[in-house]
């Protein structure tokens, strides 16, 4: 059986698990999220691999880029990604990557952009199954009414991440919308 290198990565926002497989990041997820077991099982099953506490250049790069993000010095990630899920999930995650730094979108907008107008719940479920939090920015998705809705790291963390992006991007409109929450 192959191995997925993992490391625990503590941040001011909570603890993440970073995982890499054959030169690509396949995991950047909140350690204590509700769906931890399901996400881990999906990743291990897709790769026919087990987690091993080890580091490598991909984990090092992801750590550095995340530190830069949290310091307000990085808006886009360059670490190579390995998205592991169904074809539909991967389409949702690719669409998520189009939501710009310091901007938000809704599940409805994601579904419409994908041409899946009636698949709002499926889009929301795929968003929730994202194993590459922050890097694939599921925290930028809000309810159609603009309210903060579920997030693997918790709604409070989601609000903090959106505020971090708004403050470091200098986007006044985002600051105004955040005050509504």
CATH topology of the largest domain: Arc Repressor Mutant, subunit A
| Estimated helix fraction | 40-55%
**Given the helix and strand composition, which structural class is it?**
alpha/beta
The CATH architecture designation of the largest domain is Orthogonal Bundle
Order of secondary-structure elements:
EEEHEHHEHHEHH
Radius of gyration: 16 Å
Identify the strand order in the major beta sheet.
3-2-1-4
Determine the oligomeric state from the structure.
Answer: single chain
First CA to last CA: what distance? 47 Å
Shape: globular
For the sheet with most strands, the description reads:
4 strands, mixed
Nearest-integer average pLDDT: 90
Q: Any low-confidence stretches, pLDDT <50, length ≥5?
A: 171-181
Question: How would you name the CATH homologous superfamily of the largest domain?
Answer: Winged helix-like DNA-binding domain superfamily/Winged helix DNA-binding domain
Give keywords:
alpha/beta; 4-stranded mixed sheet; 6 strands; globular; single chain; 19% strand
Describe this structure in words.
- This protein is α/β, with parallel strands linked by helices.
- It has two domains: 2-70; 87-178, Winged helix-like DNA-binding domain superfamily/Winged helix DNA-binding domain (Arc Repressor Mutant, subunit A, Orthogonal Bundle).
- The chain is built from seven helices and six strands.
- The strands form two sheets. A four-stranded mixed β-sheet has the order 3-2-1-4. Strands 5-6 form a two-stranded parallel ribbon.
- A hairpin with a 2-residue loop joins strand 2 (14-21) and strand 3 (24-30).
- Helix 4 (107-113) crosses helix 5 (120-128) and helix 6 (155-169) packs antiparallel against helix 7.
- The longest helix is centred in the last third of the chain and has 15 residues, at 155-169.
- The model is unreliable at 171-181 (pLDDT under 50).
């Amino acid at each position: 059986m192959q191995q997925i290198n993992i490391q625990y990565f503590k941040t001011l926002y909570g603890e993440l698990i970073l995982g890499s497989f054959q030169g690509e990041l396949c995991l950047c997820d909140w350690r204590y999220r509700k769906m931890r077991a399901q996400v881990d099982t999906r990743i291990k099953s897709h790769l026919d691999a087990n987690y091993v506490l080890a580091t490598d250049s991909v984990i090092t790069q992801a750590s550095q880029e995340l530190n830069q993000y949290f310091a307000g010095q990085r808006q886009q990630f360059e670490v190579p990604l390995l998205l592991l899920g169904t074809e539909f999930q991967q389409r949702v995650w690719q669409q998520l990557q189009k939501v710009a730094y310091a901007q938000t979108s809704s599940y409805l907008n994601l579904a419409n952009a994908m041409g899946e107008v009636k698949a709002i719940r499926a889009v929301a479920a795929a968003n929730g199954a994202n194993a590459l939090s922050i890097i694939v920015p599921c925290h930028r998705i809000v309810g159609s009414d603009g309210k903060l809705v579920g997030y693997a790291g918790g709604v409070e963390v989601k609000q903090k991440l959106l505020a971090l992006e708004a403050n470091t991007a200098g986007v006044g409109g985002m600051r105004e919308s955040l005050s509504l929450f």
